[in-house]
Design brief:
Elements (H helix, E strand, L loop, with lengths): L7 H18 L4 H21 L3 H10 L6 H16 L5 H22 L14 H9 L9 H17 L24 H29 L17 H4 L19
């Protein structure tokens, strides 16, 4: 992947700082801002000192109650994902999922500022958008279609395994739904990500076809149905082992 993943522990710290900044920005007065800054600093220090950010996550979750609309929902989805990923032993897998979710939400925010709204305000006016942009180093680190196909696949697998039995919707819903968040539809995101992942795969397929033609290759098979030597590329199977489902800790806060 040409996109460089931000390490999981570093990225989750940056995201929590971004959400804390969002909470402070919505304080109704300067006095309240100073009070929140002090509380956030204390919780952040305690999390760093103890090596556990469980209480800090819960603190941020509760403080988001005073923020209405999509930023509250998006922030809580990020916090819930961090809580779940804290139980993942494979830090690269955790990093891939969290990087993808942060990018996905960043792009969602950008999209909301498109069209007629672009004449009134800029996506840079969004505190959370700026925080995610800086957290992922998007100025010099933007995923391409090859990256996105893999990234969306990883995030989809993660979400599916926390929503459906065995990660497969026909099997039904899990008894515990960690993404049962007020005003949030995880199913909508799963459907949207499925389309985005398919779109990235199709673009990659088309790009491969163009590149092959430009190299002088022919897409027409020279073998017949009676050939005794089937194409090796046709017989090739993936050597990548199937990813194990991400363990799902019980919901700690709501």
């Amino acid at each position: 992947m040409s996109f460089e993943l931000v390490a999981y522990k570093l990225l989750k710290q940056r995201i929590m700082e971004s959400i804390a900044t969002l909470i402070i920005a919505h304080a109704p007065s300067e006095e309240e801002k100073k009070r929140l800054q002090q509380l956030i600093a204390e919780h952040s220090y305690s999390a760093s000192d103890s090596g556990s950010d469980e209480k800090y996550l819960e603190f941020l979750w509760n403080k988001l109650e005073k923020i209405s609309g999509p930023r509250q929902v998006q922030s809580r989805v990020l916090l819930k994902t961090i809580e779940l990923l804290n139980g993942e032993d494979d830090l690269r897998k955790a990093a891939l999922v969290l990087n993808t979710l942060a990018f996905y939400i960043h792009e969602k925010i950008v999209e909301t500022y498109s069209g007629i709204c672009s004449f009134v305000t800029s996506p840079d006016s969004s505190t959370l958008k700026r925080g995610l942009y800086n957290s992922l180093n998007l100025k010099d680190n933007v995923p391409n279609d090859i990256d996105l196909a893999k990234m969306y696949e990883a995030l989809l697998e993660f979400l599916n395994h926390h929503v459906y039995v065995e990660g497969f919707s026909p099997e039904g819903y899990l008894h515990i739904q960690p993404f049962d968040i007020k005003e949030y539809s995880v199913e909508d995101d799963i459907n949207d990500l499925t389309l985005k992942q398919a779109h990235a795969v199709i673009k990659n397929n088309n790009a491969a076809k163009v590149k092959y033609k430009q190299s002088g290759g022919s897409l027409k098979s020279s073998s017949s149905i009676f050939s005794s030597s089937p194409s090796q590329s046709y017989l090739r199977t993936s050597s990548t082992p199937s990813a194990e489902p991400v363990p799902m800790p019980s919901r700690r806060f709501s």
